[in-house]
Amino acid sequence: CQAAIRVAEEIDSVAAIDAITVHLPDAAIDYPGCDFSGPYRHALQAKMSIQYGVAAALVRKSVAEENYRRLDDPAVLRLAALMRLKRDTDFTTAFPAAQGAEVEVGLSTGARISRRISDVVAATESEIRARFRAAASEVIGVERADAVEETIDGLERFAHAGRLAELCTPAGRKGKSRAVASRARAAR
C-alpha cells in the first residue's frame, strides 16, 4: 500500500490504469487471505487482501480505515480485478527482516509507473494513536475511546483486563450482550 500511494501521487486519474503488477515476497502471497481479488463481503476480507488494499491506496492515496468502509466502490473493485501478484526473489530472500514490495502500474497512454520500497515504513506511535482514536470514536464515542486509550496506557496497574472489554463494547450493546449470555445460560 505504501508503494501504491507513491505511484498514485504520479497519476492524474486512476481511470487511466489498465494493468497493475505487485511484486512481493512469497510469504505475503502465500499467507491465507492475502491473495484474494474478491468479492468482498466483510471488511476483514478486504483488509487481508493485497489486491483490495493496493487498489484502495491507489484510489484514495492513503491507508486509512475509511478505505474499508465501502466494499462495493467500483473504482477500487476495478483495480483489484486488474491486479496480478508476482513473486519477487529479492523480497523473498529479505523476508522477514524486511517486508518490501513494488507496485507497477500500466496506463492507457502506454506509460508505466513503478515504485519499489525495500521495507515497510512503520507507523509512529502518534500515527497509531490517531488512527485508533478516529476508528474507535466512530464506534464507541470519543469519551469511551479516550478511556480505552487511558486504560491501555495503564494496563500494568490492573489485576485483569475486563474493564477494557467493557469499554470497547459499543454503547447500548452492553446490556444486550449480557441478556444474550443470560438466556444462553438459562437454556443450558
Poorly predicted tracts of residues: 175-188
- How many whole angstroms does the radius of gyration measure? 20 Å
Order of helices and strands: HEHHHHEHEEHHHH
Strand order of the largest sheet: 2-1-3-4
Number of DSSP E strands:
4
Strand content: 5-15%
Main β-sheet: number of strands, strand sense, barrel status? Answer: 4 strands, mixed
Mean pLDDT over all positions: 89
In whole angstroms, the N-to-C terminal distance is 48 Å
Coarse morphology: globular
Class computed from helices, strands and strand pairing: alpha+beta
What does this structure look like?
Helix 7 crosses helix 8 (142-153). Strands 2-1-3-4 form a four-stranded mixed beta sheet. Helices cover 49% and strands 14% of the residues. By secondary structure, it is an alpha+beta fold.
Give a concise summary.
This protein is α+β, with helices and mostly antiparallel strands and 188 residues long. The chain has helices at residues 2-8, 26-30, 43-48, 50-60, 74-82, 89-94, 125-140, 142-153, 162-168, 174-187; strands spanning 17-24, 83-87, 101-107, 112-117. The longest helix is centred in the last third of the chain and has 16 residues, at 125-140.
